[in-house]
Amino acid sequence: MTFDFVEPVVFALLSIGVIAGGVAVVMLSRITAAALLMAFTFLCMAGMFVLLGAETIAAFQVLIYVGAITVLILYGVMFTKFGDRPRALFFQRQTPLAAVFVAAVAIPVAIVALSFTSAPPRPGGGDLIALATSVFTDFAFPFEIASVLLLAAMVGAIVLTKRDDPEEAALRRRP
Amino acid sequence: MPVGPFGIDPVIWAPLRLVIAVGLALFLVLNGALLQIYLERKIQAIIQDRLGPYHVGPFGLLQTFADALKLISKEDVRAQATDGWFFVAAPALVFCPMLASWVVLPFAQDIVGANLNIGLLYLTTLGSMTVLGIVIAGWASNQLISYEIPQILALVSVVLVVGSLSMIDITRSQAGPFVNVLILPFSFVIYFIAALAETNRTPFDLPEAESELVAGWLTEYSGMRWGTMLALSEYGNVTVVCAIVTTLWFGGWQGPGVEAIPLLGVLWFTLKVYAFILVMMWIRATLPRLRIDQLMSFCWKGLIPMALVNIAVVAVLALAFPTTKIPVAIASWVLLVIFVTGIPIVQRQRLRTLRARARAATAPAVRAAS
């Protein structure tokens, strides 16, 4: 008896989780539930990475997407006083158009994905040193660009939220 | 047929090991929480010159068991305005990451659920997942997110010196009396302060504030849902944090006689962890709660800059002197002294400017009245 069957089963469960979670995020009208299901989708993605042997990527996936981005979105949802709204967002009315776009992307992806016949590569993602070396040598420039972009976004967010507060301005004018 | 540990077929041993690990972790979390609640009550009672629990069992030892039974048998109250599934899911979302983080805690030489080579990253990840549950359960302040930053920054300096993220390797690197706290005392202090905030312990227990908010974000919960959220998860997290402190800065399971009897490591590890839990309780009984603006300004203006300076200094010195740790140790102690002596001076300065501003603000009003 071996446990070879475990990996396909886990993969199937995770892919069901990713796809069902993703579909639910788009279809649900309750925005808090959508946010939580997005976290679930990200967790399943992290499981996929673990299955591929890339534990480091999985850890960062959970750390950034579940721990930071989903929490941020939940805060955003809670602070904007919109409750669960009916399905009246304008892009939800254009199902045929959406179907065309999805098909245009999904069919080539499916064809490419099904044409892979070789065994999946084993990156050994737990190897932090290799990952760090490649990020800070080969990919140093894209890495820095991404950092600058994030910094610009952060400064922009602060500027946008901090503008035109009369009380604040009055305080600043006083010596 | 290959034979694994204890003469069990490895094919059976792999899942069995998992079951044993989860069962053991659950057992430890449940009993650790009971013990820690008892300790918390007794120690606070001693510090405040009271008796504490003493009716149920000898020295009141069974008091927490009685409380747990009461919680389990309580009616499951659910307020009407709560958000169905979220209300049910939140305790699980807080509890599960905490339980999962026990996997990488090294209790002794070979007694560890999994020797992940990214153990520390894994723990950080699970810590950030807990926030999700708390946000869903109620409106946690963003204290949790802010204090994660100095916490992770403090961990980085240890990783820089040791050169590994594995909890086992970090423990092994501290053989002998020169544990990491002697080399990196400053990052230990930063981590411990941030960890107090991360686990909602006094003086940073603003989301809870039992005396004012009756445990704010938990008010709607009752019975065992409340028990899982507060008692199990909070004390479980406290244990995890103290275990991280023990492993990273105080040599983990290592202690006298461990080479001869490896199981003695469990005893040393537990003793060290509970020593830090006692320190946390001592702090709780001693210090008053901070105000939210003090809390945030201390984090963003005090802890994070100092943690960044610490990382920069440790990284440069670790690169410049790869063979010896003495320069890192000297620099870290100097930083610690600057930090400890700097806080009162900066605070006095701040207080002076605040008072001056308040006086300037009231002066025209006083003049108009007279």
Keyphrases for this structure?
heterodimer, A: mainly alpha, B: mainly alpha
Describe this structure in words.
The complex is a heterodimer of chains A (175) and B (370). Chain A has 175 residues and is mostly helical. Chain A is built from 7 helices and no strands. The longest helix of chain A has 25 residues, at 55-79. Chain B has 370 residues and is an all-alpha fold. The longest helix of chain B is centred in the last third of the chain and has 44 residues, at 326-369. In chain B, helix 2 (63-73) crosses helix 10, helix 5 (143-162) runs parallel beside helix 12 (292-320) and helix 8 (185-198) packs antiparallel against helix 10. The interface between A and B is medium-sized, with 23 and 25 residues.
Question: What oligomeric assembly is this protein in?
Answer: heterodimer
The helix tally of chain B amounts to: 13
Beta-strand percent range of chain B: under 5%
Largest sheet of chain B: none
> What does the largest sheet of chain A look like?
none
Query: Compute the gyration radius of chain A: what is it?
Result: 22 Å
- Average pLDDT level of chain A: 79
Weakly predicted, low-confidence segments of chain B: none
Structural class of chain A: mainly alpha
Number of strands of chain A: 0
Helical stretch count of chain A? 7
In whole angstroms, the N-to-C terminal distance of chain A is 80 Å
| Portion in helices of chain A | over 70%
Note the run of SSEs of chain A as H and E.
HHHHHHH
Shape of chain B: globular
Low-confidence stretches of chain A: none
User: What is the H/E string of chain B?
Assistant: HHHHHHHHHHHHH
Number of strands of chain B: 0
Approximately how much beta-strand content do the residues of chain A carry?
under 5%
